[in-house]
Write a structure and sequence with these properties.
Strands 3-2-6-5-4-8-9-10 form an 8-stranded mixed beta sheet, with helices on one face. A 3-stranded antiparallel beta sheet has the order 1-11-7. By secondary structure, the protein is α/β, with parallel strands linked by helices. The protein has a single domain, classed as 3-Layer(aba) Sandwich (Glutaredoxin). The protein is built from 4 helices and 11 strands. It starts with a strand and ends in an 8-residue tail after the last strand. 24% of the residues lie in helices and 25% in strands.
Length: 186
């Protein structure tokens, strides 16, 4: 396991890169279908990473609390060739086992992760209603899987967004396993 922190590629105010990806519901999803929400949270995640597993309850809580106002989209960009736990079929099982009701998509080409600048799992990006980036970073302040959160960073930032307030700290790196990139053939 390679432990990484989020990096800044997309900057505050940048547009959410578009995508069309297959979901665990066996339907293709595009960014444009979430236009009626007041915000959008895109989280690069996977099934096997202990950091993602430790944040799954927090992600389900975010969805339950804000589902009518904030669209939450999980995207798995890991290469299932070397990480079979992250296969599409295992994504479906993981979603059922963990009670994930938000959209969970597979990024087979890994191009979406590259456009967002995602490097780790989880790697969350919060966008406003105009799909401009307002926050890139952690879900809460429990940085290791065994830590207990004392601050729900993403909930606080979403509440600010919904109240029309500015998120003061627009980058607060998440930490997790590296995205498992496909080996490039030369």
């Amino acid at each position: 396991m390679v432990l990484l922190k989020s990096e800044v590629v997309l900057k505050t105010g940048d547009n959410a890169p578009d995508f069309e990806l297959l979901g665990t519901d066996d339907k293709n999803h595009r960014l444009s279908e979430y236009k009626d929400y007041k915000g959008l949270l895109v989280v690069f995640m996977c099934n096997h990473c202990p950091y993602v597993q430790a944040k799954t309850k927090a992600l389900v809580e975010l969805h339950d609390k804000f589902k009518d106002r904030i669209a939450i989209i999980g995207i798995n960009s890991n290469d299932p060739t070397n990480y079979p736990d992250d296969s599409f079929e295992n994504m479906k099982r993981f979603a059922v086992e963990k009670g994930i009701k938000f959209t969970y998509l597979v990024d087979e080409t890994q191009q979406v992760a590259k456009r967002y600048g995602a490097v780790c799992t989880p790697d969350p990006f919060l966008f406003d209603q105009d799909r401009k980036l307002i926050f890139h970073g952690r879900i809460d302040n429990a940085m290791r899987p065994e830590d207990v959160a004392t601050e729900k960073t993403m909930i606080l930032n979403i509440e600010k967004l919904l109240q029309g307030k500015k998120v003061e700290k627009d980058f607060d790196p998440s930490m997790g396993c590296s995205i498992k990139w496909k080996i490039q053939q030369t």
